[in-house]
Every structure is written in C-alpha cells, then in structure tokens.
Design brief:
By secondary structure, the protein is α/β, with parallel strands linked by helices. It is built from 10 helices and 8 strands. Helices cover about 35% and strands about 20% of the residues. Strand 3, helix 2 and strand 4 form a beta-alpha-beta unit. Helix 2 crosses helix 10.
C-alpha cells in the first residue's frame, strides 16, 4: 500500500478547494451586457485574482484566506463561468479583460495588483499591454502568449481530464444556465484555437512589473514558452514553483500564497 500511495506525485493531484471565506461584499456587476459575479474580502492595497478557463472564483479560497489578511482581495467569475452570465458574443481575451476593467470601475478601484492563473494570466497580460495604468504588478501563472505555447499532451492528461469533469459539475451547480456546459465549452474552445497571438515586439512594450510563473511539472504550458515570455517582457521575473503542475494554487496553497505575497509586496 505504501508503494501505491506514493505513486501519485503532488503535481498529479487535483485537491478540492477549501471553503470560501465570507465576503465583505458580493453581488453582480452589470458589465458589457452580462451580469458578472464578484466578491470582495479584507482591506489594504487591492489585489485582483482571475481564475483559469472553465473555472470560477471559489477556486481561490486558500489564496483569499491568506491574502485578505493584508490586502483587499477581489475575485470574480469570468464571463460565462461560474455564476456570471454570457452572451452570444464570441469569447476573446480582449473582451474578458474589458469585463474585468469594467468591474474595477464598478468597484471604484483605480489600480490593483493582479494574480492570474492560466486564462486569468492571459487576461492579465492583455491588461498590462493595453491598460498598464490600471496595474501595480502582474503575477501571471501558467499563461501563454501564442497558441503554440500549449503542450498538445494536455488533451490526454489525467489531471486535466479530472479538472474538466469537476468543472462541468461545478458549472451545473453554479451557473444560471446549468444545462449549457457543452455550448459554453465550445465557445471557449473556439477562442483557444486562435488566441492569444502576441508578438515578441508587443510583449516588449509591457511596463508593469511582471512575474511569469509556472509549476515545474506544468502539463499545459511548455517550459521553453514560459522562459520565452519572461525573457520577452522587460524586467520580468521568472518563478518556477517546485513539485506542482498547472494547478499549483490547489496543490501547494501555502507556498503559492507566499510566492504571490513576496512579489506583490516587494518594495
């Protein structure tokens, strides 16, 4: 049994998120024709957490519990995800970035640090490219800037498969359109086929202090692509988290939280 128990490494696991703390404020913001669910916790310099594709805000529970001790933490469900509604408008990272900027306007937050995981990291890079005045720092974990940065092996990865199944169950539980998961995934997949597509020259214009972050066993993003991103963004810090994969924030929450704080609070 001992040999069996050790067969699954930490980076192969998909822990359930802990229970989300009680928010100080939550609701739905009317942005770009949708109702966007959000929640706010704590006080201090703001930090916006943006989840990955097919996920939802509650995935960040461990991060909220820690970061809200010293920061005002904002989470939301991206367009079509979780409790937020969607329209027939095609998904795109620019559109989703504009949703989050509109949410910040709604909450009267001028500037924030941003922690983005996977699609959330890509949304963060979009904001850093087009609205750098809204960001103090960007911590982008498991993001890519071109479609060829994605490892094709992810399509058959067991941990990723488990995430997609869990996300479907969460969608049925949270969404206002619980029977439309397949249609939602189809809309997202269409975006993933062509986006993002930023050039090295575009990345070279980013002025936001940026950390490009990956687990050392990330199943979805090629390591050389992560290193390319860090090299292309001026002054970017490359952070490789040990013994974790794409789902680092769930697999090693304490280490992840410390890595975030070390970066966003650096003087």
């Amino acid at each position: 049994m001992a040999g069996f128990a050790s067969a699954e490494e930490r980076w192969q696991t998909l822990p359930e998120p802990t229970a989300m703390p009680k928010p100080d404020q939550s609701g739905y913001a009317p942005v770009n024709g949708i109702q966007m669910y959000y929640a706010v916790f704590g006080a201090g310099d703001p930090v916006l957490l943006i989840h990955g594709g097919l996920g939802h805000a509650d995935i960040w529970a461990s991060q909220v519990a820690t970061l809200s001790k010293t920061h005002k933490v904002i989470v939301a469900d991206s367009r079509g995800h979780g409790r937020s509604t969607r329209t027939d408008q095609p998904f795109g990272y620019g559109l989703m970035a504009s949703d989050y900027l509109a949410l910040l306007d709604y909450l009267k937050i001028d500037k924030t640090a941003l922690v983005g995981w996977s699609d959330g990291g890509i949304i963060g890079i979009d904001i850093a490219l087009h609205h750098p005045e809204r960001l103090t720092r960007l911590y982008a974990q498991a993001a890519n800037v071109t479609t060829d940065g994605v490892d094709p092996g992810v399509m058959t990865d067991k941990t990723f498969g488990a995430y997609i199944v869990r996300s479907g169950k969460d969608y049925a539980r949270l969404s206002k359109t619980p029977d439309e998961y397949e249609a939602f995934v189809a809309q997202m997949s269409h975006m993933w086929e062509t986006q993002p597509a930023w050039t090295k020259e575009q990345l070279g214009t980013i002025t936001t202090p940026t950390a490009i972050v990956a687990g050392d066993h990330d199943e979805a993003i090629k390591r050389e692509h992560t290193e390319y991103m860090a090299a292309a963004i001026p002054g970017a810090k490359l952070v490789i988290l040990p013994d974790v994969g794409h789902f680092a924030s769930l697999q090693a929450p304490d280490e992840y939280n410390q890595s975030v704080l070390d970066f966003i609070d650096a003087k």
